[in-house]
Structure formats: structure tokens, C-alpha cells
């Protein structure tokens, strides 16, 4: 049996430790393990922000279509025309049979208003129809936003259209 001296053992341990510290093979894996959670949080935030922009754009487009329908209807707007406008803005169909264009319309706090205002210019009166909506944003990753204190985000949009008649 071979006996190892104490100095030889300490030299081997010191040499192995020094070799492990000099070796850079696993550095990339360790760096990735440390940065992966931060990268995931940033990616989720960017994805949710894009989802917000998409819903906001859809809301704006649906208000524009509703205002164009209202501008081509007879004034004052009848109850059935206002219902058709409401259905068109919320579902994209005149009878309201489609799915909501913006998921927040299903929330009871969502609102849509249709108003008509008369403007005068050079002795001529002009009717302008305005649709305004306030819709809660329903996040794709709702738990993510709530964990950072964003419990309720409301999208607000409006569109005005000059009355052109039927």
C-alpha cells in the first residue's frame, strides 16, 4: 500500500481547485441560469404589451366602423340604429351574434357612448357623431401584471365622424 504524504495531498487538492477555477467550460451555463428568469420576465412583459397594443388597435378600428355607420344613418339616431351600432362596435356583426372583438367588452364596467354635436362654420351647421368607449384591458398573462400592482388597466378610445346622411 502506498502512503501519500500530507504535502502531496494538499498539492493535489490545490491543483484540482486551481484547475476548476481556471476551467471556463461551464461559465456560459451558469450565466444563462442566472439570466434566464430576467429574460423570461422581459419577454412576458413585451408579449403582454404587444397584446395590449393589438386590443387597443382593434378597439379603435371598431369605433371607426361604428361611427361611419352612425354618420350614414338618419338623425336623431333611433334606438334600433344605436343597438346596431353597439353590436357592430362590440362584435363586428350588426345582430351581435359574433364574439367580442376586444375581450374586455364582456366586463360589466365597459362602456360605449354615442353623442351628436352641432358645429357652426360660416353660417352652416355641421353634425358630428362621436363614439367613445372605455374598456378594461384583459391581459394575456393577468397574473404577471397583478404581481406588479397593475390590477386594472382601462383602454379609452374615441372616434368622430361628420354626418353625411343616408
List the keywords.
single chain, 166 residues, alpha+beta, three-stranded antiparallel sheet, 4 helices, 3 strands, rod-shaped
Q: Any idea what the shape is? A: rod-shaped
Q: What structural class results from the helix and strand content?
A: alpha+beta
Q: How many distinct domains?
A: 1
In total, the number of strands is: 3
Roughly how many Å is the radius of gyration? Answer: 31 Å
The helix content, as a percent range, equals 40-55%
Query: Major sheet: size, sense and barrel closure?
Result: 3 strands, antiparallel
Oligomer: single chain
Topology as a string of helices (H) and strands (E):
HHHEEHE
Which consecutive residue ranges, at least 5 long each, have pLDDT under 50?
Answer: none
Enumerate the strands of the largest sheet in spatial order, edge to edge or round the barrel.
1-2-3
Mean residue pLDDT:
85
Q: What is the number of helical segments per DSSP (H or I, 4+ residues)? A: 4
* Percent in strands: 15-25%
Please give the alpha-carbon distance between the first and last residues.
108 Å
Give a structural overview.
The chain is α+β, with helices and mostly antiparallel strands. It has one domain. The protein contains 4 helices and 3 strands, in the order αααββαβ. Strands 1-2-3 form a 3-stranded antiparallel β-sheet, covered by helices on one side. β1 and β2 form a beta hairpin. α2 packs antiparallel against α3. The termini are far apart. The mean pLDDT is about 85.
Amino acid at each position: 500500500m502506498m502512503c501519500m504524504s500530507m504535502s502531496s495531498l494538499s498539492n493535489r487538492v490545490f491543483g484540482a481547485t486551481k484547475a476548476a477555477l481556471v476551467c471556463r467550460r461551464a461559465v456560459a451555463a451558469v450565466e444563462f441560469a442566472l439570466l434566464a428568469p430576467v429574460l423570461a420576465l422581459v419577454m412576458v412583459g413585451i408579449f403582454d404589451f404587444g397584446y395590449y397594443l393589438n386590443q387597443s388597435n382593434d378597439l379603435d378600428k371598431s369605433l371607426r366602423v361604428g361611427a361611419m355607420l352612425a354618420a350614414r344613418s338618419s338623425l336623431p339616431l333611433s334606438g334600433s340604429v344605436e343597438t346596431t351600432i353597439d353590436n357592430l362596435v362590440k362584435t363586428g356583426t350588426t345582430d351581435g351574434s359574433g364574439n367580442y372583438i376586444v375581450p374586455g367588452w364582456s366586463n360589466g364596467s365597459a362602456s360605449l357612448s354615442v353623442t351628436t354635436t352641432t358645429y357652426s362654420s360660416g353660417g352652416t351647421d355641421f353634425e358630428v357623431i362621436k363614439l367613445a368607449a372605455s374598456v378594461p384591458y384583459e391581459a394575456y398573462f393577468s397574473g404577471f401584471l397583478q404581481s406588479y400592482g397593475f390590477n386594472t388597466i382601462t383602454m379609452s378610445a374615441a372616434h368622430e365622424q361628420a354626418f353625411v346622411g343616408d
